[in-house]
Each structure stands twice: as C-alpha cells, then as structure tokens.
Amino acid sequence: MALRCLYRGSAGELAEIIVQSHLVEELRRRFVSVHGAKPRESESASWGGSIPTVVDLLINAGLQDVQVLIELTAPICDVRMDIVLVGSEPATGEICVVVVENKQWSQIRPVRGTQMVHVPNAPGRNPSLHPATQADGYRQALRDFVPMLRTAKVMSLVNLHNMPAALLETIRDEDQLESGAKRTHMYGKEPEERERFAAMLTRTLSGNKALEYARDLLSARVSPTESLMTAVSKSVRGRSVFPLLDEQRKAVEYVKAQLAVSRRGNKRVVLIVGGPGTGKSVIALELLAACSRDGLKVAHATGSRSFTRTLWEYAGEDTRARRIFRYFNSFETLRSKLDMLIADEAHRLRRQTPGTGGSQVKQLIEAADVPVFLLDEHQVVRPGEDGTIQLIENAAKEMKHEVLRIDLRSQFRCGGDPEYIRWVEQLLGLVAGEPPHRWRPRENYELYVAPTPEAMEKFLNKRAAETNSSARIAAGFCWPWTFPRNGTLTDDVRINGWNRPWNVKGDEWVGDKPPHTLWATHPGGHGQIGCIYTAQGFEYAWAGVIFGPDLVWRDGGWQADISQNRDRSVENALDFDFLVRNTYRVLATRGMRGTVLYSVDRTTNVMLAKLGARLLNYDGVPMNAPQ
Q1: Which range (213-222, 417-426, 491-500) has the least confidence?
Q2: Distance between CA atoms of residues 581 and 584, nearest Å
Q3: Mean pLDDT, residues 354-379
C-alpha cells in the first residue's frame, strides 16, 4: 500500500505548464485516469486559482527544484491534500515535507467556542472546519501513518491568497485552535504576507535531493491506522486518539457545539450517517475523549454484546469502563441526565426496549442533553433491529427536538478506497439500478477470488505473516455452531474436506482461544471462522469471506435460501433476502488492506471470478503474480 497523487513534478516543471496555460487541462486528464470520473468544476477552478500562487513563490525564492505533489491522497483515507512540497532541510539535508492547504476565501469569521469558521458565499455547508485545523490534521496523518516521516520535519500551512490580513487575524485566536493547529502558519494576500510566506519556504526547504525524497515518499510503506480497540484505553482517560481529517473533525466540532445550544433550551438530536469505514466509531471515541477532558458526564452505548465487552476488555483495569461503555437497553432507569450520550452502531436499535415496551430511541434521547446516533442503515442484519434514519427522526419530531444530520463520505477502511465499498454494494444488489460490475484493480486495495477455502486460508496466512498484521475468515451462518467439548472446539464448518471451528461459543476461554467477543481483536482468534455476530463492528487487515449456500447466484440475480441458514434469529424472517445480503456486505467490508472471496456454490464462485478480481491458485498464490 503506497501513497498516490495526481501530479508529481518540480516547481520549475509546473511553472512551465502554467505558462503554457495547460495546468487545469492536465490535472483534469489525470483525475479521470486515476478516479474514473471528471472532477467537479469548483475543484478545477481551485486548481487554476490557487496552485500558481504557490508555484510563483517557489520560483521567486529560488526553489525551482522542490518537488510539488498535487492532490496527494492521505494515508488510509480518500481525503486529498491540495499540495505537498517535498525537499530537504537546508541545515541537515534530511527530508522535509510541507503540507499546503489552499483556500480561495476572501471573507471569514470565527465560530466562537469551536474549531469552525463561517465563510460567506462559499460553496458547501457552513460553517467550515478551521483551515489551520484541517491542515494540521493532514500533517499529523502523514507523521502517524508513514513510518519514514515519523522523525522527519513535517509542517503545515494555509495559503489564503485572497484573504486580507486584517480578516485573517480574526481566526488566529488561540482559544479557537488546538495545540497542533496553532503551529500551522496562515498567509493572506498582501505583498507583506506573500513575502513572509516566501521567507518561510526559504528557511524551511531546499531543492537538494528533492526528487529522490519525493520518489521515496510515494513508494514508502504506509502502516494501517491504529486499531480502534487499542485506542480505547486512551479514550477512557480523555486523550485524543486519532488524527481526524476534514469531515470527521468537522462532525466532532458540530457535536461539541450542540452542548451550548442544548443548555440554552434548544435541544438537538445529532445523526451521523456513513458507510463502513467512514470513521463513525472513531468519531465516537474522539467525542468520548473530548467530553472526558472537559469533565462532562458521557456514556458510549451500543447494541452489540461483542463490541461492548471488547471495549471493556481493552479499557483494562479502569473501573470507569463499565459505566462509560454500556448497552442501549441500560438507560430506561437512568437517574441523572448525561451531558452527552454516544449511540454507536445505532442501526442495531430496536423499536422497543426488551422487557419494558418503551421506545428505545426515546429513552436514549431523554438520557442526555446531546444524544448522538451513529449509523449505517445497510448494517441491519437481524430481525427486530430497526435503527433507521426515519425511526430516529420521527422520535425526535414527536419529542419536539430538532435533528442535525451529518453525512460522512470519506473512506478510512478498505485502503481508504470508497470504490471498493461501492463495488460490494453493487455486487450484492444493494444499489438500485446498478448491477454487479467488473472490479478495476486499485493501488491501495487488494481483491481476490479463491478456488477453495484452503487456498483462501493459505493466502491470508502468508499475507498476515509478511505484513505482521491480522487476518480473519468469516462466513455466512450456514453450519451448526456447537459448544466446546472436553475443552476443544468442534470443526463445525466443513467444506469439501476443509474443516475449521467457528469461534468460541460463549463467554469463557477455551484453552488459548478467546471468547467470541474477542475473536476479531485477540491474536488467539486466528484460525477460527467468525460470523456476523463476531465480525460486525470490527476490522482487521486481511479479510476472507465465505459465501454459504444461503445466498447463491442464479439466472443473473441473487437467490436467498433461508432453509440453508442455521441462525435461529432469522429462521422466520420475512425480509431474509435483504438481511442476508446486508450480512455479506458487512463481512466483505471488514478488511483494511484486502479481501478474498469464496462461495461454496460453484456457479456463484464462477460468477465472482468473472468480475475482474485477481484469482488465486490452489496453493493460495495470485495467478500470474511474481513468485
């Protein structure tokens, strides 16, 4: 997995393209080649308006050899940075990187008490994330996720080339910025501002070895983001745990701002909606940490036993863990109101709280000044789960509360590639009017189809060993799942002579095999087969997915067969076809680096193999790949 950008070249080369008036045309052409779609007109206009203002400064400062990376995709995410400058430190000769966030804004005002700004007449939703906070998030992401930059000099700045310096001063208030963003330089439009900008570049960068360093950076190893579970203990202790980028950071700021609004008597219910890997649970933990830092009463709730118990496990000895991490059904007798309740995986909400008959959504809304629901409607996989946008909005309306909805788009899982998520949804018929289409190989995500589960297992074991990372195989619930016998697991999953056990059924360890709640995150879970109950809500580097006979491809479409499913919770489900396709969507979007698919049904597996994913041979080796 490597970094990628739209354009790489020296400042001098870029200046020639600009002089010839070919800049926007060239970037458009490359954008279509890389992303398979045309850029937005506003994006093209930004390239033409902002990039030359940076290149001119580099040329005038004698930095024509500095390498300019345009639209560098952030590590493990599809967010793109405007410009990244690569050169060497003048004093040491070591690599130096400067992240430049371009803004064409000419007007601005701060939104007090938040890391947000209001930009009159700007496209998109107002308010916007403070540009210094945005740029610093990129700087932090490069430092955290690119090992070669962890000891290097990495800076961030904001190029506000249309902004009067007097207005710029209004958003330099230290109370509005976190410590990291305070280090981000911002420059306006006046000649004095441009001179300061150029002087900073001269002090910071040299063109020596710039080409070598830029090539090294673009081919550098990118480590996966810190596992969500390993960050829990930090979050319980009130520490920021992730470098949230763009809309993730913006969502956190929106939610924090609602605390003041609610205390003025205008309570709002916050909905954060996004597909798998868009950062919902990361946002939840960041909100938890922020509230803890401020001494607020906060709780994190889910409907997932596995997820909540895993949070308890990773919180360790901290006695607050069981008070902070709770279940949806534990709020009907709440004695004192919370400042904030974070309802993660809200698609698992039930219409009524079991045993009480009361509305579960209304109980959660009543429990806090600011109730926050994070959900993905396509992850409803069990009968009785009814956590939809409409359910929450209707409940809030009946209680006369306003709903603030935030939609997440940027992709942090699956190699930061939203195209893979879309491909899975089209494959499973979850996008109206869009049938399965051929997979287009991606630089940042690997997709394979295996001829047997044994080949899948061999490939995943090898990849996990090579990358020192995690791998798990999960399957549709199409085989019996028995309790351990005499301290051993039974090989319940049996496919043509390949036999493996499900993960542990129950809450106790079986030798070195962890309870089912820890299957996805504990090393001892390797080698057992997980199902929707143990995979949902988690992530691992490499994912194997076994399609069982409960969903097969026939006559150009999917056919669901409930008789082949062993899950008692769905045995009478009238919407089994919808639930089972959602189930396989969840299983197929757990992998951060790559996924291997296999169906026990030969016709279905042939269909998968014809969709363009790379094939494995019977030894688990990619076909036509270097040995």
Answers
A1: 417-426
A2: 5
A3: 81
Residue with tokens 């956590």: 387
DSSP string, 184-205: -EEE-SSHHHHHHHHHHHHHH-
* Strand residues in 450-505 grouped as ranges (E): 471-475, 493-495, 498-500
- Owner of token pair 């649970």: 281
Cβ(141)–Cβ(78) under 8 Å?
Answer: no
Q: CA of 130: how far to CAs of 112, 167, 260, 331, 340, in Å? A: 11, 14, 19, 36, 24
Distance, CA of 392 to CA of 365 (rounded, Å): 9
pLDDT tens string 46-75: 999 999 999 999 999 999 999 999 999 876
CA–CA distance, 569 with 614 (Å, rounded to integer): 35
CA dist 233 and 311 (Å) reads 8
Strand order in the sheet with 185-187: 7-10, 67-73, 80-88, 95-103, 153-160, 185-187
Closest CA to 65 of 201, 183, 237, 255: 201
Contact between 483 and 539 (Cβ < 8 Å): no
The gap from C-alpha 600 to its chain's centroid, in whole angstroms, comes to 31
Total residue count of the chain as it appears in this document: 627
Structure confidence at residue 596 (pLDDT): 97
> Alpha helix (H) ranges present in 294-404?
305-315, 321-324, 360-366, 389-398
CA dihedral 19, 22, 24, 28 (to 10 degrees): -160
Question: Distance between CA atoms of 397 and 389, rounded to whole angstroms?
Answer: 12
pTM of the entire structure?
0.58
pLDDT category of residue 477 using cuts at 50, 70 and 90: very high
CA distances from 204 to 68, 142, 201, 237 (A): 15, 18, 5, 36
Q: How confident is the model at residue 570 (pLDDT cuts 50, 70, 90)?
A: confident
C-alpha to C-alpha distance for 118 and 623, rounded to whole angstroms: 53
Q: List C-alpha distances in Å: 253 to 58, 270, 341, 406.
A: 34, 12, 16, 11
Q: How large is the angle between the packed helices 280-293 and 247-263, nearest 10 degrees?
A: 50
Percent of the chain beyond pLDDT 70?
85
Quote the distance between the C-alpha of residue 250 and its chain's center: 14
Q: How far apart are CA 401 and CA 345, in angstroms?
A: 21
Rg (alpha carbons) of the chain, rounded to whole number = 26
Q: How many CA atoms lie within 13 A of 334 on its CB side?
A: 24
Number of other CB atoms surrounding residue 8 within 10 Å: 20
Tell me the average pLDDT across 29-40. Answer: 84
In the numeric block, the tokens 């309740």 are attached to 341
pLDDT given for residue 606 in this prediction? 96
In sequence order, the β-bridge partners of residue 370 are 340
Cis peptide before 127 (omega within 30 of 0): yes
Quote the CA–CA distance of 23 and 158 in Å, as a whole number.
Answer: 21
pLDDT band at 229 (very low <50, low <70, confident <90, very high): very low
